[in-house]
Specification:
It is a single chain. The radius of gyration is 17 Å and the shape is elongated. The protein is built from 10 helices and no strands. It has helices at 3-15, 34-43, 48-55, 59-71, 79-97, 99-115, 119-137, 140-147, 152-159, 169-179. By secondary structure, the chain is mostly helical. Helix content is 68%, strand content 0%. It folds into 2 domains: 2-18 and 27-72, Arc Repressor Mutant, subunit A (Orthogonal Bundle), CATH 1.10.10; 79-180, no CATH class. Helix 2 (34-43) crosses helix 10 (169-179), helix 3 crosses helix 4 and helix 5 crosses helix 10 (169-179).
Length: 185
């Protein structure tokens, strides 16, 4: 089931620059980041030795790259918060590839969420829905920064996400697997 997904991660690893600083910087994880793609392979269940073979490097080098990607994640004590953050991190990849269809799908989903609210939930999530609406009308980088914000506001936003239907099953599974490996303390 993960085979095409793993093949796409291998392509990303091979095509990504070795120096993560060449890929960009900011509060979000850079697009095309080799370490992130390697961590994706690891999370998808590819053994460390096989990853090293793909890269043509030692197992220690591959392990260092995985730790570098893990170290960029916020320390979130709650597993559900880590899963939500990783899912949004995966959506960021889609946004960076082609933002228009992702933003359009999120806008449609947001309207469905607003229309389907029940009384108690509407009150709790109205602020998040309003914020998502504002962010979806703004620039992509601000949207990404808010999606991956490590604090309480970021967690609240992610809990009322309009991006539920953006990822494939394989991408969701990889994000959930990444979340099971917490960032180093």
């Amino acid at each position: 089931m993960l085979q095409p997904f793993i093949a796409s991660l291998v392509e990303q690893v091979v095509a990504s620059p070795e120096d993560p600083l060449l890929a960009g910087e900011g509060t979000s994880v850079p697009e095309g980041d080799r370490c992130e793609s390697i961590f994706g392979l690891y999370a998808a269940g590819v053994p460390l030795g096989e990853i090293a073979q793909i890269l043509g490097c030692s197992v220690l080098t591959a392990q260092d790259d995985i730790e570098q990607a893990r170290g960029r994640r916020p320390v979130l004590a709650n597993h559900d918060d880590r899963v939500a953050w990783e899912l949004h991190r995966a959506v960021v990849d889609r946004l960076r590839d082609d933002p228009a269809p992702v933003v359009t799908a999120a806008r449609v989903r947001l309207e469905e969420l607003r229309a389907g609210d029940d009384g108690g939930q509407a009150t709790r999530e109205a602020a998040q829905f309003s914020e998502w609406g504002r962010l979806l009308e703004g620039d992509t980088e601000s949207l990404i920064d808010s999606m991956l914000a490590p604090g309480e506001q970021g967690a609240q936003l992610r809990s009322a996400t309009p991006f539920a239907d953006v990822l494939t099953t394989d991408e969701r599974l990889a994000a959930i697997r990444k979340a099971s490996v917490p960032a180093p303390l």
